[in-house]
Every structure is written in structure tokens, then in C-alpha cells.
């Protein structure tokens, strides 16, 4: 078995535990984080934290584990970290440094069984039959008429496919998938949200942290690529992509490993980000969300989710509608970013020369650099990038391209 030790600080090393050393759980509980000022505030860690490259129990069946946390953010009633009191710093780090955000409220669905690949191939928009173990992709759950339900990030593992979905859709998607399992299908659906934790690492310096943790073998790999490790015997999967971007990385782990992994990332310089700043970042980057940009009002092509779409894989749910839209150029509206002159409520009507051309779907006060900013669907022929629109009675908006959708282009007509 190949294994590696991950360095955990600006020179914090992760050393293997000696054979006679106390169990990892005891070490973790009694660990003393010594903050040593050395070469610009470097840190060291007093216990071993090996990252072993081997398929962990997360790819098998396992029992629920108790969640552990280390941060003390302001939290909501459901336990979501709203803010660490550093939203401006975190948003700046997302553009210029690196942030880590706890996305454990997102749903995780495990699809197993002999027919799992063909099943997901038929139920979602991506070409699962083209993927092998260790690969991944975006895929979209749609209605039979190609209306959007949610974007899912899928990881193809040895014994299962793990789907990462939005918090509000996990229950309904799990129920929907179970509904479409026929008697002869060898497929099992399991909601493993409470058995796992998820962190996203995002920002231009995220690759540097990966290299410092001796996880650099994932740097530069295709989007969705993932590998399995263990932290003191507890399972950890790391994947390329950070939900909000093809860049960055996502960590899925046993909840009992979450505290150690979180501290390791912070020790490397990652800035913690709460859900409030994450929502601001989502809107600024243009990542569509269920109940806002992903609803039964809009289809997958209007949402611009071309990366998650296969046009030649054969029959699947929504395929006929999608094929007609592509063949006859039937896309009527497009998702845009809108720079705004002042705050405005979502669902506000957007007009050009007094005529309704769309509506706002999300809004954020933004940053000092961005100012008020929103997302909205605009009729294709009504306006284009750089054009001005009116939002509500008198708020001026300017249409801008969205980073999340920038590299998702329709296929060439050639």
C-alpha cells in the first residue's frame, strides 16, 4: 500500500505515529497545538496525522459517527456556521488567497449496486458510462421537460457513486431516485449526509496548501478527480473542484476526522468562511442555486450548465426537450450577473425600454469592490453583456458575464 505523510503547517510536519504510541483518538483529544513564532508565524503540531492512500470505509458501508467541531462561529438554529466575524477578510481571501468553508449542510447521497452507473446515466444529464473509478463530473437533475432541480457533483468510486447536492434538495432527490428504481434494478440509494462532513477549499492559493500537505498529486488533475486517504485510520476523500469553481478542492471525511482536518487547513493559512459570505461568493461567481436560479421556471440550457450535459449519450430524463432546444435554437433566456446601482429584492422585474425582459433571482450587497450585485434571467435578444437594464422602478443594472458559467459554452454548430 502506498502511503504519504502530509505536512501540516507552514513547516508543520505530519509524522507517522510510532508503533507503541497511544491510539490516535487519545492523541487527538489531548493534542496541544503549539503556536511557535518561527519564520513569519509558522506553526507546529504535537501529534501525528498520517494521510494514507488507501480506499477507506467511506467507500464501503459504515456506521454513523459523532461529529466534532473546532471553530466557534455564530451559528444558526440548525447548527450552520453563519459567520466567523470575518466576512470581508474571507471574501478577499477567496479572490487573493484561500478560504475553507464547512459545507456539511450539503447533502451526500451514495448510489451503490451493480447497475448504479447505468441508473445514474439514465436519470441525470451527464455521461456516467464514460467515467471510471477516481473520476467525477457535474450532473444536473431535471424534470422530464428539462426544468432544473439541482446541480450535483458526482464522484465515481470503486463500490459506489457519491452525489453532492444542495441542502434543500437532498431529501427530494433521494426520494425521486428511489422512485425510479425498478424491481430488476440492482441499485441502492443511501443518504450519508449525517455520516460524513464536507469542507471546500477555494482560492488561488489552494493548490499551495495541497502541496504543503503532500497532497499535491491532485494538483492539476481533471475536475472531479479524487483520491482516498485516511486520517489516523479515519476516512477522507479529496476531490478536485470546490463546488463554486473547477478550481480548489473538496474534502469529504468521517465526522470524527473533521476537527483535525479543519485545524490542519487553518494552520496552513486558509481563512474560515461562514455561510453568509459563502452565499455572497456564490452570487458573485454565478453558481446557480435551487429555489433561485434552478426552478421549474428555467431549463438546464437557460441556466448555462453545458459542462454537466451530454448531447450524445442516448435516452435520459429530459433528453427529448434538450435535443429540441439545441436543434432549433430554442433557448429563450440566459442567466446573467447584474451590477446594480442600489439594493433590490430578488424576484424584482427587469425591464428594457419599459418592456419586461426578465427578473432578478438572487441579490447580495457584495463587497467594496463589487457593490450591489445580483443574478437574473434575461431574454436572449433583449440585452447582452455590457448593456444596461432597469431593475424595479429605477435601479440601474449592467449585465456581466459570470465566472462559474464562463467556461461552459454550447457545442459548436460545426
From TrEMBL:
Pfam name, any one: GCV_T_C
- Record flagged with keyword Transit peptide: yes
Name the family. Answer: Belongs to the GcvT family.
Q: What is this protein called?
A: Aminomethyltransferase folate-binding domain-containing protein
User: What positions does the domain Aminomethyltransferase C-terminal occupy?
Assistant: 335-401
Residue ranges of the GCVT N-terminal domain? 92-313
Keywords assigned by UniProt? Transit peptide
SUPFAM superfamilies linked: Aminomethyltransferase beta-barrel domain (SSF101790), Folate-binding domain (SSF103025)
Cellular component, GO, one term = mitochondrion
